């Protein structure tokens, strides 16, 4: 910072102090939201597991039924449900989930269902075929919105609008680790019930039949998956933002320390110069 005046350095220090206060406040807000989001994610997992176990139980008991949700198709039309954040300043959170989508979709034309402001803006900017723009704010989606969305997806799948449906979201592993994931929602793996042992002594009787019950619970199952992914993504976003703001705060502190050192050196240099001028004047 050669040639920079003491006043300029002082203004820069004040600017960095203001930035530090902002990043510290954002870090605290993100930490507060993270606790709630993490609790929501944990509460949704039992429901998802129950619906998954029920679907697997039906498939294990009756391998003859031909549900349209299981029958394989030639994949010509794909739908991607993409969950991203509503805001930036969250490190690589939004970039990583959108990058995973780009890597999986390849060069083939696809249809997307963006959830979250960043996902919607990115898909619109890339002129992707957007199936619905009804979910611009991921943080405002409720469990009823998730079930409505899942029923719409299932209806479109049964009508043949899509041959495959995938979900792209971010899984919350820990405070420091958030992993972007892609899972196939439809058609379901035909071996969904292979891992469950068939116990003839405890076979459940489904009315009117297993296939009908199976077809009825799949939209509920997908709704639970979507809502669970929303909760996981929300927790991941807040954790990523907290980490990013923590790093920004530390960087601001380092810059303030460096600028303070430069300011003190410049001030000491000015004092030394004044003393030299006074001594030289007295000698003259």
Structure in words:
- The protein is of the alpha/beta class and 284 residues long.
- The chain has two domains: 61 residues, ATP synthase, gamma subunit, helix hairpin domain (Helix Hairpins), CATH 1.10.287.80; 206 residues, Pyruvate Kinase, Chain: A, domain 1, CATH 3.40.1380.10.
- The protein contains five helices and five strands.
- It has a five-stranded mixed β-sheet.
- β4 and β5 form a beta hairpin.
- The protein is elongated.
- About 2% of the residues have low confidence.
Task: Name the helix and strand elements from N-terminus to C-terminus, one letter apiece.
Answer: HEHEHEHEEH
**What is the domain tally?**
2
Query: What is the CATH C-level name of the largest domain?
Result: Alpha Beta
Low-confidence stretches: 196-202
Record the strand order, biggest sheet.
3-2-1-4-5
Structural class: alpha/beta
Question: What is the oligomeric state here?
Answer: single chain
Beta fraction of the residues?
5-15%
Give the distance, in angstroms, between the N- and C-terminal Cα atoms: 34 Å
- What is the CATH architecture annotation of the largest domain? 3-Layer(aba) Sandwich
CATH superfamily descriptor of the largest domain: ATP synthase, F1 complex, gamma subunit
Number of alpha- plus pi-helical segments: 5
Cα Rg: 28 Å
Percentage of residues assigned to helices: 55-70%
CATH topology of the largest domain: Pyruvate Kinase, Chain: A, domain 1
């Amino acid at each position: 910072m050669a040639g920079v005046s003491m006043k300029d350095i002082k203004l820069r220090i004040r600017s960095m102090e203001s930035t530090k206060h902002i990043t510290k406040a954002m870090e605290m807000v993100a930490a507060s939201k993270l606790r709630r989001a993490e609790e929501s994610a944990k509460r949704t997992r039992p429901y998802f597991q129950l619906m998954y176990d029920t679907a697997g139980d039906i498939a294990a008991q009756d391998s003859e039924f031909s549900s349209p949700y299981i029958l394989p198709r030639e994949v010509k039309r794909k739908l991607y449900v993409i969950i991203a954040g509503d805001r930036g300043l969250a490190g690589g959170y939004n970039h990583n989930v959108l990058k995973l989508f780009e890597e999986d979709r390849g060069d083939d034309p696809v249809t997307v269902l963006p959830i979250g402001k960043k996902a919607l803006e990115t898909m619109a900017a890339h002129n992707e075929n957007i199936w619905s723009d009804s979910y611009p704010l991921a943080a405002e989606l409720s469990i009823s919105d998730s079930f409505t969305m899942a029923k719409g997806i299932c209806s479109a799948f049964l009508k043949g609008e899509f041959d495959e449906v995938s979900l792209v979201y971010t899984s919350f592993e820990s405070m420091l680790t958030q992993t972007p994931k892609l899972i196939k929602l439809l058609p379901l793996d035909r071996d969904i019930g292979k891992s469950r042992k068939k116990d003839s002594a405890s076979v459940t009787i489904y009315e009117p039949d297993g296939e009908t019950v199976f077809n009825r619970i799949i939209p509920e199952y997908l709704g639970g998956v979507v809502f669970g992914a929303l909760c996981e993504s929300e927790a991941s976003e807040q954790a990523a933002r907290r980490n990013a703001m923590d790093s920004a705060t530390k960087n601001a502190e380092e810059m303030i320390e460096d600028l303070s050192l430069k300011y003190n050196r410049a001030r000491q240099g000015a004092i030394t110069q004044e003393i030299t001028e006074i001594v030289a004047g007295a000698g003259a």
